[in-house]
Amino acid sequence: MILQAHLHSLCLLMLYLATGYGQEGKFSGPLKPMTFSIYEGQEPNQIIFQFKANPPAVTFELTGETDNIFKIEREGLLYYTRTLDRETRSTHNLQVATLDANGAIVEGPVPITIEVKDVNDNRPTFLQSKYEASVRQNSRPGNSIGTLTAHDRDEENTANSLLNYRIVEQTPKLPMDGLFLIQTYAGMLQLAKQSLKKQDTPQYNLTIEVSDKDFKTLCFVQINVIDINDQIPIFEKSDYGNLTLAEDTNVGSTILTIQATDADEPFTGSSKILYHIIKGDSEGRLGVDTDPHTNTGYVIIKKPLDFETAAVSNIVFKAENPEPLVFGVTYNESSFAKFTLFVTDVNEAPEFSQYVFQAKVSEDVAIGTKVGNVTAKDPEGLDISYSLRGDTRGWLKIDHVTGEIFSVAPLDREAGSPYRVQVVATEVGGSSLSSVSQFHLILTDVNDNPPRLAKDYTDLFFCHPLSAPGSLIFEATDDDQHSFRGPHFTFSVASESLQNDWQVSKINGTHARLSTRHTDFEEREYVVLIRINDGGRPPLESIVSLPGIILAVVFIRMKKDKGKDNVESAQASEVKPLRS
């Protein structure tokens, strides 16, 4: 191994004597910051420089962006072991230091910069091998078709990466060669000599070459000549005559077929035809659908026809392309057509002005009060008779002529609000056709329901004798409409004779507590009357009773069983809050 290392150092020394990369013509010197320039692609194992160490340094250490390419020997010989590539790394930043026998740094580290100089070793490339472009026929010479861009990995802004473009071949050469040109340095492809005609050739294929000073690359460009919209649609006839339809003809029906043709390239925006109704149909009752394959137009009914508002309509069509016409070409009378639509009358049912009529009144309105009205109209102008259907409570009547609705009985919001009935409008004479609408009567609340207990309270009792005052909880309610906060009842003992024994305390707006004032009660059933007031406008109150409040005796029954006393206790019910 020692002999092998000695031979390796001897070889490097011989290379060092033959070649080297020093500064100011020197190949060796002291350790200091230095920059070296080396061309990429040169043979490996070449010495760059020899650094000299000052005692007590005995060896050198190399760190930084070595990429496992750069090495340094004990004697200070800096060299590289593989071919350098500028496109991989254009600059290597290294650091060199001297070490003593114990591996401690004596000098440095100092920066050593290796600049890799470019050589033309990369072929220019296109992003893709084939491109496709289009040019409108009749485009002027000089118009841009597109720009080709090639790339060269060699150093930018040098002769190695300067690219030149040229057209190698054009096929077909009709009507002549040289119809296209490409800018030498920019790569912009242009129309050269004359405008193109799709009738001559619909497609051209170009071979494009890009080159630097040493390499060439080819790509292929397909250029499609596309039609321009220089032809207008022409109707096969300008007048489609007269058409008579009943006003109840179904929506969606096809009533007429129209046809125009266009001489531009088929199945393009230049030859596709759209039909528009430009006159005679302000309500939009008709529409035209186009067959995309034949350009045939189908006139359809989009909204119901109406004899009463449009008995005769002079319809005018215009045929247009979605693609704009070229400059200088305009639509003329050939792109317009007409027909006359006659609509015949059909007896129709009366029509209400709205589907649902709605009114609002207080539930305490007087009998005979007008609570709402409905309106309907007969398309043929016949008189209308109104009637009600579904007045299950018998609350309403309607004026057969005017459609005014009146109350004929007391109304009650709690019984039903909104109150819904149907209104029937029937034409007088003719076929007596009729139609139906809805009438909703919303009743606003008045305070007309007194308070009451929320449920029946039974089997209420305390244990007798009372050891402490007892209490029971009860709930009140009424049937009137309350605010989102709920009712606010007040509670009191209704009889003065009971107030010495019983008291009522309010818990919240709906619940109260009945309590005994003392414990000195007889064993019997008590009926307690409670006054409940709702605080409404006007305020209503009622007196309710909590019947059957029993004070029961707690007793002990003794009996003998096999010589032993056995005691059974009959427990009185515990006092519990009452649930609603």
Brief write-up:
The chain is mainly beta and 580 residues long.
What does this structure look like?
- The protein is mostly beta strands.
- The chain folds into 5 domains: 28-117, Cadherins (Immunoglobulin-like), CATH 2.60.40; 125-226, Immunoglobulin-like (Sandwich), CATH 2.60.40; 233-344, Sandwich (Immunoglobulin-like), CATH 2.60.40.60; 351-444, Immunoglobulin-like; 452-479 and 487-552, Immunoglobulin-like (Sandwich), CATH 2.60.40.60.
- It has a 4-stranded mixed sheet, covered by helices on one side. Strands 2-8-7-4 form a 4-stranded mixed sheet, with no helix packed on it.
Name its key features:
580 residues; mainly beta; Immunoglobulin-like; 5 domains; four-stranded mixed sheet; 46% strand; flat; disordered N terminus; disordered C terminus
Tertiary shape = flat
Radius of gyration: 54 Å
Q: How many strands, which pairing sense, and closed or not: the largest β-sheet?
A: 4 strands, mixed
Percent of residues in beta strands: over 45%
* Unreliable sequence segments: 1-25, 552-580
CATH topology of the largest domain: Immunoglobulin-like
By helix and strand content, what is the structural category? mainly beta
Percent helix among the residues? under 10%
Mean pLDDT: 85
Report how far the terminal alpha carbons are from each other.
Answer: 106 Å
Number of helical stretches of at least 4 residues? 1
How many domains comprise the coordinates?
5
- CATH-defined architecture of the largest domain: Sandwich
Major sheet: arrangement of strands: 1-3-6-5
What is the CATH C level class of the largest domain, in words? Mainly Beta
Q: What is the CATH superfamily of the largest domain? A: Cadherins
Subcellular location: Cell membrane
Pfam families: Cadherin
GO molecular function: beta-catenin binding; cadherin binding; calcium ion binding
Protein name: Cadherin-17
